[in-house]
Amino acid sequence: MQRTRLIIEAPAKINLFLQVTGRRPDGYHLLETIMQKVSLYDEIELRACAAGIHLRCSEDGVPENKENLVYRAAALFLQATQGRRGGREFGVDITLTKRIPVAAGLGGGSSDAAATLNGLNKLYECGCSAVELAEIGLQLGADVPFFLADAPAALATGIGEILQPVEPLCGCSVLLVNPGFPVSTRWVYQSFALTKKENTGNLKSSQEGVSGPFTLNGSAQTVPQRTFLLNDLETVTAFRYPEVGRLKEELLQNGAARALMSGSGPTVFGLFADRQSADACYTLFKRRFFHTYLVSPVGEK
């Protein structure tokens, strides 16, 4: 008997490494980035219905129409799989419970879209392959294929769609601190391109002086190979929003082994080898920033 209801969790991610390696003629930037899923989740409830896409979101201000990636993911999926459903009309009622901050550099929208695609494939038993879902997902955003994949951590190249699984983080706690304002990913990439073109000397490594990988608790397996925490986009975002740089410094001063902005920001994360230090730092930041989360890497052994 076909199920009529499904609940799926959509994890956030952090970028342990992000380098812009070029730009395609169509304007998309080429990247090399290591992404790690973390245990902060949005929740998506899917209910089968006769027709149409009906989206409700728990958070005020989040669109409930085609401006939302979840809505667009559902529309693309239903269109792409119409033949598999014998031409029969199906719809879906979607309830999106947001916990991942919006426009935060944590991939919440992309993760929600991926969860919707995976969920609809199960709900309607369409049998789409991972490759087929990734092709649909890439129409929605470059990060969506990563969230569709089973791997908890991956090296992504191209525009983010070429994935190679890597060892996930382990042996550490991750503190996410979002300063409470959104940052447009499009603006960051556009500003990066302008800054790069006008003056390459203005763009310095976000971890200048860090020349190699690091470990936590003395174990070489705690940080994915090739990772040394760098984000090319951090300089752009931090120049306009100095709070990003201040958060990094505070995290390091309060016990973080390393700190970095995730994605296009403005969320900053700290890696802690010691859980007690992470708990104390969480308490300190939570008093000032509502969107502060102490999480674990997904997939750690």
Describe what this molecule looks like in 3D.
This protein is α+β, with helices and mostly antiparallel strands. It folds into two domains: 5-165, 2-Layer Sandwich (Ribosomal Protein S5, domain 2), CATH 3.30.230.10; 173-295, Alpha-Beta Plaits. The protein is built from eight helices and eleven strands. It has helices at residues 69-80, 108-123, 130-138, 144-148, 185-198, 234-240, 243-253, 275-286, and strands at residues 5-23, 29-49, 53-57, 91-97, 153-157, 162-165, 173-177, 230-231, 258-261, 268-272, 292-295. The strands form two sheets. Strands 1, 2, 3, 4, 5, 6 and 8 form a seven-stranded mixed sheet that branches. A four-stranded antiparallel sheet has the order 9-10-7-11, covered by helices on one side. β5 and β6 form a beta hairpin. The two termini are 36 Å apart.
